[in-house]
Design a protein that fits this description.
Strand order of the largest sheet: 3-2-1-4-5
Largest sheet: 5 strands, mixed
Oligomer: single chain
Order of helices and strands: EEEHHEHEHEEEHHHHHEHHEHH
Distance between the termini: 39 Å
Shape: globular
Mean pLDDT: 94
Radius of gyration: 21 Å
Length: 332
Amino acid sequence: MTDRVLAIDGGNSKTAVALVDTDGRLLARVRGPGASPQNVGLARSLEVFDGLVREAARAAGLADGDAVAVHTAAYLAGADLPKEEEDLRVAIEARGWSATTVVGNDTFALLRAGTADGIGVAVVCGAGINCVAVAPDGRTHRFPALGRISGDWGGGGHIGSEALWHAVRAEDGRGEPTALLDAVRAHYGTPSVAEAVQRLHFEEVEFDPHALCPLLFEVAAGGDAVARSVVERLVEEVVVLARVSLTRLGLLDEAVDVVLGGGVLTGTGGVVVDAVAARLGEAAPAARVRVVDVPPVVGAALLGLDAVGASPGAESRLRAAYARDLNLTRSG
């Protein structure tokens, strides 16, 4: 057996795999397509994960047939319920990558990536929206995060759909005037939104609501009241998720971290983040709202290192490795 930890961050749009030793040295990392079991099915998810794990093992100099790691920490989109986590754990253990395996929702990896101890609240808004919280005594709070059937509001696809919805209603008179109308027309290259809707209906063009999400934020930044109302609704949802989680764990008055992540939140600058910090501060004045500054796969690796009792300094060493790469990317 070996003293390595295998970390998997499986998102809806991409999958990241890292192989680290128990001193926090990054041995290999690879990325591939999204492989959420909810989107592509369990068999395809495992196929993607296995291919990336084998690629990481080769990059780390391991021979075929070698044990990849002593422990696998897999934090995956689509692992929303305990049964899903258990089914995925059993399936991943059967791959034989390591002696032990933990599977959890990817939002827990975000929380660990954004904190020194994995304590606090994490809210992610990317393809979908989710929130988890962990108390100092180990108690957790989470939401099912199954979409509208479990009461969710938000996510890139949902917000993009709102842009189209408001544009349609502005054009046909059911809604308020909005600059989203011209923006959506331009996006689809049609003289009217009605024509775009017809083309979408007959599948002459692909409907990708995620592509409309940045458009809505651009229109909102220009001062459009309708678009801004959607952004305000997102801010409200993020605050509600965090506040409820803090309340349920008795942390509303504690100095804990509230970590925000996901492309929708991190890609809007301070538009959403600053508003969330201000509004959450009214209910939880001691809470520290912050945006995660390393990829969630770092959180998965740190949770794995926590599980095996990694050496002191392992966390700072791993964070430094990703920080160096991030600085090189920015300077390039």
